[in-house]
Amino acid sequence: MRIRATVAAVTGALALSALAVPAAQAAGGSSYGKDDVQKAAAAAQAASGKTAFTGATADADGVPYPLNITFSAVKINNGKPIVAGTTNRVSVPVTYQVTHDADFDVTAPDVFLDVEIYRGTSYDSPVNLLWGDDWPTCTATSSTVASCKGTLDVRPGQQLNNVDATSWKAGGYVIDFNDQLGVDIDDIDWSKVGYAEQDNLATTKLQRFSKLTVNASPEPVKKGKTITVTGKLTRANWDDNKYHGYTGQPVKLQFRKKNSSTYTTLKTIKTSSTGTLKTTVKASADGYFRYSFAGTSTTPAVNAAGDFVDVK
Predict the structure, then answer these.
(1) Which of 207, 224, 239 is the last residue of a domain?
(2) How far is CA 55 from CA 117, 124, 287, in A?
């Protein structure tokens, strides 16, 4: 798999991707690793001195010709942000359509396509780039349209820093080797290779997983006496792969009576410099206390599990 990458100079999005990822299956079922495809595409781009698709023609010497194929209806993680902790791999679905010429078979064993997400100014020069471990599965819905399903696989401990908790864009590519599978990269006839690349297909957000705790005491407690409610709000830190307190964030203290299903907000307080929470309330009835955090652009909302207090 590719480890965290910050690339100063690239010759197209796939040049950045030219590092090992797990072997996978192509859309057409051919056993061919993503690293092989991406290295081949990067080599093609280097041969032309520019992105393989941009300005390329079938007549150009050693330059791939442009494929007439486009991506549409791209949806990442069903439209929800991608939330990652510090270590575990996160795999989310990616769905889209590709429209192509009637005589082009996107499921052919020498045709490879994928949708990736990137952070940066453009798909040609990303600051960071993420993709799925496996090739997508594409099914023809007409002679010119195919519906594709794949994944994005995120390994926060290897691929992310805190600056990556922001909006990302999606880009897609298609490469047709035209029966040249297995040919050494140095021996490929690039003028016989078709390539297409498309940017700004969709957007998604990456967020740092959050945790929230609560403890109400004493318990049991006499009615009218003071209850102290403590807790802590933390979130994943992708720079050191640990959890740290989230400072200065507004958090609601909520209460639910024993036989009720609805929480009511009692007050809002802010986390300390270490993410801790502490406040007091008067005991009135049996029920559950919890803290509730609404989330931010970089951090998802989270509710603590309710802590029951028996009021005598």
Answers:
(1) 207
(2) 23, 14, 68
* CATH number for the domain harbouring residue 161: 2.60.40
pLDDT tier, 195 (very low <50, low <70, confident <90, very high otherwise): confident
32 plus 110 within the same structural domain: yes
Count the neighbouring beta carbons within 10 Å of the beta carbon of residue 247. 13
pTM of the model: 0.84
Determine the structural domain holding residue 178 and report its residue range. 13-207
* Residue 236 dihedral angles phi and psi, to the nearest 5°: -65, 135
| CATH number of the domain within which 301 lies | 2.60.40.730
Looking at the fold, whether 137 and 58 belong to one and the same domain comes out as yes
Phi, psi (degrees; rounded to nearest 5) at 184? -60, 140
- Out of 184, 207, 230, a domain closes at 207
How many domains does the structure of the chain reveal?
2
**pLDDT tier at 33, thresholds 50, 70, 90:** low
Same domain, 108 and 142: yes
Structure tokens at 98: 């590709």
